[in-house]
User: What shape does this take?
Amino acid sequence: MRIPLLAGNWKCNKTVGEGEAFVQEFLAQLGDTTGREVLICPPLTALYPLDKLLAGSTVALGAQDVFYEESGAYTGAVSPPMLRDVGCTYTIIGHSERRQYFGDTDEIVNKKMHAALAGGLKPIMAVGETKPQRDAGRAEDIVVAQVRAGLAGIPTEQMEQVVIAYEPIWAIGTGDTATPDDAQAMHATIRNTLNVLYGSAIADAVRIQYGGSVKPDNVDELMACADIDGALVGGASLKVESFLRIVHFVE
Assistant: This one.
């Protein structure tokens, strides 16, 4: 059985103090999380202090990106061992904003996937199409190509650690959300691709999140879809009340 993963991606938001205040309030109200996994991905500056606050809780800590080398002359880079050192168990890889603003190609995404897995991190690999690509009828081709490229060379035995996040780029931060039917259709396509690449057992086991303007008022409907196994939440994860409602979606 796939356990839903509800992840908050804070992006470039919150100082250390703001992050600490959020986590303290969030944990105080979180309650029972049986049957679901909760993850917070704050900015790099907040990882170490938030690890201390999350210790002993049911909330995991993740990074928003990772570099593909362990160490060396790579100014500004943060490696898998460094992320593990400050308490991370997850890292997002290939988010559309990394692809758009920082030049992360499919090849770079793949290198980061290999590095994360080798370094003991669980990668959340984000894939998704633009509005022109969807309008042109190319959405499935684009997403399948990203899945195949990102997972190139990843062995079957490591796939248990992999999460895939489908984030239609046109829905990220825009207020637009893929309809549950559209989201489910793409998730099913991704799962079928995993079946082709790794077989039915892996395809059935890998969690596929939906991301793209997930909000308290649409999370229940999205999570009711057969192949949606959680949410990668942006803006709605920045407020305690809204993220709590998403974490406690109604099954």
